[in-house]
Amino acid sequence: MQKETFEVEYEYEGERLDKYVSILFPEQSRSFFQKLIKDGNVSVNDKVQKANYRLKTEDLVTVEIPDAVETQILPEDIPLDILYEDDDLLVVNKPKGMVVHPSAGHYSGTLVNAIMYHCKDSLSGINGEIRPGIVHRIDMDTTGSLIVCKNDESHVFIAEQIKEHSVNRRYRGIVYGVVRDDEGTILAPIGRHPVDRKKMAINEKNGKDAITHYKVLERFDKYTYMEFKLETGRTHQIRVHMASIGHPLLGDTLYSNGKSPYKLQGQTLHAMTIGFIHPRTREDYYGGSVDLAMFDLAVERYGEQTESVLCYNGDITDVAGYKNIQKRYPQVDKIMIGRGIIGNPFLPQEIAEQRCCYNAGILLAFHDELFAGYMEAGLGARNVMFKMKELWSFMECIFEAPDQQKILKKIRKANDPDTYNTEVRKLLR
Description:
Layout: E1 2-7, H1 17-24, H2 30-38, E2 42-44, E3 47-48, E4 60-65, E5 82-85, E6 89-94, H3 111-119, E7 143-149, H4 152-163, E8 168-176, E9 183-187, E10 190-192, E11 200-202, E12 211-219, E13 223-230, H5 237-244, E14 269-275, H6 292-302, E15 311-313, H7 319-328, E16 334-336, H8 338-343, H9 347-353, H10 360-376, H11 381-395, H12 402-413, H13 417-427
Parallel strand pairs: 7-14, 15-16
Antiparallel strand pairs: 1-4, 2-3, 2-4, 5-6, 6-7, 8-13, 8-14, 9-12, 10-11, 12-13
């Protein structure tokens, strides 16, 4: 049983009891606390009150939250707004008010319940039974793009990008006040609030580095419409950073003292885009593509200047793609094929010789050398196996035959190093 007592501050004078308690515990819904109040687990000055009780300054609110109980998380037929989906992952547009994963008081109606119904058994299990497929999260009242992983290999690969802050996350929101600068950057460490443990705050002593870039999109009389780009992903990062410069998000009851004149459910914040490298194809899903029209202009401007070196870079993955660019731009000095080499180590030789240069023996020798190197580093055979699976995600394009695809599937699903190595040798025999 979790039991805490809070003294009501002046700013919450006249606030409903259920709303006040939900502000104290933002990870839970207002309906959860309405039930808690109804069950007699919330008292004011040692007296049980109704949910609509209006608080007074210096009231003592005591909240008793029962211990979480193990419960079976069940699939639920909840409509999903799916932005993208394949065999490895899906990107969903999470609606306002939906909790990402089950927690105390939230064992149904969550995103996990919805994706369990949609994906059946095809979800990563790294985060346990209560968070299948969940590799990151956004706040309950924040809307927008969220990645769900269907297998452990994809989960590991996406999680690594998130850890390295290479995932391109852009948000849009409305803040209180008129922001003066057209754009700017907030560099301020974020950690747990020193007094109010339910909040995050700028914490120079114990906080973690946090960087938020912002840009003004449109100004109104009392509000500003803005875009945010995150270099880090701290809890409540945008909410805390914008509040720290005097422009909290409209509707944010946790980090703002201002009361919105609009009937809002939480902060006006939307995760507009999320860019990443695909775990299997290694395709760039940052939303960008090669702009050949722009490259045409560059060639036209610089192609005749002998002192300039003109280089093309953009999704060359096979000999045909290389030849097409070479034919279209004969004045180009160099063509970069870095990503293509990752997918097919023999691509440079194939371009030079105009023939398939695949050599199973070379690949097997490379694989075994890499495996042995990881083992020498002390990672352990099982951890090395999961690490090596990333190799096959890169090079999958080499193996197009149906029997090869079947073996690749077994490699990806292998749960022990012996099975894994057996299947690798079948593939490279």
